[in-house]
Amino acid sequence: MSSPREPIGVVGTGYVGLVSAAGFAELGNEVHCIDIDAGKIERLKAGEIPIYEPGLAEMVGRNRERMHFSTDIGDALRSARLLFVAVGTPPTYSGDADLSAVNAVVGTMPASDRHALVMKSTVPVGTGRDIKRLFAEQDKTGFRYVSCPEFLKEGSAIDDFIRPDRVVVGDDSDWAGDAVVDLYRPLLTAEHGGDGPGALVRTDIASAEMVKLAANAFLATKISFINEIANVCEETGADVIEVARGMGLDDRIGPKFLQAGVGFGGSCFPKDVMGLKQLAGNSGYHFQLLSAVIEVNELQKRRVIGKLHKHLGGTLVGRRIALLGLAFKPDTDDMRDATSLVLIARMQAAGATVSVYDPVAEDEARKLIRGVRFAGSALDAVVGADAAVLVTEWREFKDLDWSAVAAAMSGTTVIDGRNALDADAVKAAGLTYEGIGRS
Ligand SMILES: NC(=O)c1ccc[n+]([C@@H]2O[C@H](COP(=O)([O-])OP(=O)(O)OC[C@H]3O[C@@H](n4cnc5c(N)ncnc54)[C@H](O)[C@@H]3O)[C@@H](O)[C@H]2O)c1
Q: At which positions is substrate bound (predicted)?
């Protein structure tokens, strides 16, 4: 890192934007963070971190003097030539990505031949082409465009920034692509002048856009695949944990994303799988496999209801069920498209009363869930419960005192929706354990 690092702008200070901004500040860049949410910017200016992400508050704290927060995009444009876009691209009713936030940012770009937009948001293939066409129509051809999709995982986002598997840069082989590679250089392998682990994939814009969608769709496919294997295991007496272990040792398969459970959720997989399916459909191709991946995932969430019926006498009417975990995965407060939302709605529709506990996602969950009892602890949640269902595999649930749980519950059923608990410890406490795909 001999040459001075250039100031950059980051538009959108959510999970991706704030982590990226803090990461680049840690590398030595001045970072101008822009968001339209004035309340969020005020909180950030006051040193408050609006999301839960391990290590993020510390990293922002360490780099406060290099991180500048504003609602005015002009502040970023004046200082920086690279403007990273990290605004949300949620699904629309049609399943396509909603690009209104991206388009709003694009609309504020001035005619300039010294600036570039660097797209971190996950967008359909062709978005870069469309934005460049729009710039051309508006006599802004000097404005450069780079696709630099983000692969961080909530819960380990800081580590993912610092130690990326790969950095994908899609561009028109111009100064902007070079500048983005320079920014990431310390995180890249020695082959690319860095001392990090990140392989560099420098490619065209459309291919970079597709890498992101294809990677998420593949991971989701792996999850739906192992969930179907788990369901067959239940019918045939095999144990999916043993099966996944045996499969994962084949290095063509690998052990990751072979954990059977109650289906994937979150702000990325469901929307990106659907987005790729729609993108294919809009271009005239029926992506049959992804239709199955989505359907399997929806059915998988509902299988828990069948398990509860089996253990609770064929009905949930009047039954009390405790949900352990609400966030779509551990170590985040993100509730977007969380499996817990579907489970709670199904349980309530079937007549059950539901108590819930999550160590960090309660505030986010309260915005989305009605009619449940928010408990102050896991033990509080299971008081009087006929059944407990583990939905998010937070560490503290694995360490629960199962004798205390058994004493607090009025029933004995424990459904381990993530195959994360020690089945023997649960059973030793006199409880009935059922996982996903276990013999
Ligand atoms: N969250 C993840 O794990 C993850 C991982 C990889 C990629 N992505 C992708 O990154 C993008 C951002 O995701 P996120 O989870 O960080 O979203 P987020 O909702 O947490 O953050 C988006 C931020 O953008 C702000 N914003 C919206 N419109 C704006 C505008 N016109 N100008 C300035 N700010 C604006 C919002 O106020 C919000 O703070 C999405 O496309 C997502 O698919 C997310």
A: 151-154, 212, 257-261, 265, 329
Is the CB–ligand 1 distance for residue 40 below 6 Å?
yes
- 81-85, 381-385, 401-405, 435-439: the lowest-pLDDT one: 435-439
Which residue segment(s) compose the domain that 430 sits in? 218-434
CATH for 80: 3.40.50.720
pLDDT band at 1 (very low <50, low <70, confident <90, very high): very low
Active site residue 33: no
SS3 content of the chain, % helix, strand, coil (to 5): 45, 15, 40
CA angle (61 as vertex; 57, 63 as ends), nearest 5: 125
Q: Which of 33, 148, 233, 268 is catalytic?
A: 268
Same domain for 164 and 267? no
What pLDDT, on the 0 to 100 scale, is given for residue 358?
98
For residues 189 and 52, state if they share a domain: yes
Does residue 404 surpass a pLDDT of 70?
A: yes
For a mutational test of ligand 1's pocket, the pick from 87, 158, 271, i.e. the residue with the most ligand atoms closer than 8 A to its C-beta, is: 87
Let me know if residue 212 belongs to a domain: no
> CA–CA separation, 169 vs 172, rounded Å?
10
Tell me the CA end-to-end span of the chain in Å, nearest whole number: 55
Please tell me the pTM assigned to this model.
0.96
Using the 3D structure, point to which of 175, 203, 231 is the last residue of a domain: 203
Whether 176 and 234 share a structural domain: no
> Does residue 329 share a domain with residue 238?
yes
3-state class (DSSP) for residue 266: coil
What is the DSSP secondary-structure string of 298-338? Answer: HHHHHHHHHHHHHHTTT--TT-EEEEE--SSSTT----TT-
Of 10, 1, 130, 52, the C-alpha closest to 327 is 52
Residue 227: is it exposed, middle or buried by C-beta count within 10 angstroms (0-12/13-18/19+)? buried
CA–CA separation, 275 and 319 (whole Å): 38
Ligand 1 centroid distance, CA of 129 (Å): 21
**Is 181 in the same domain as 225?**
no
Total domains present in the chain: 2
Ligand 1 site, residue 53, Cβ cutoff 6 A? no
What pLDDT, on a 0 to 100 scale, did the predictor assign at position 439?
A: 75
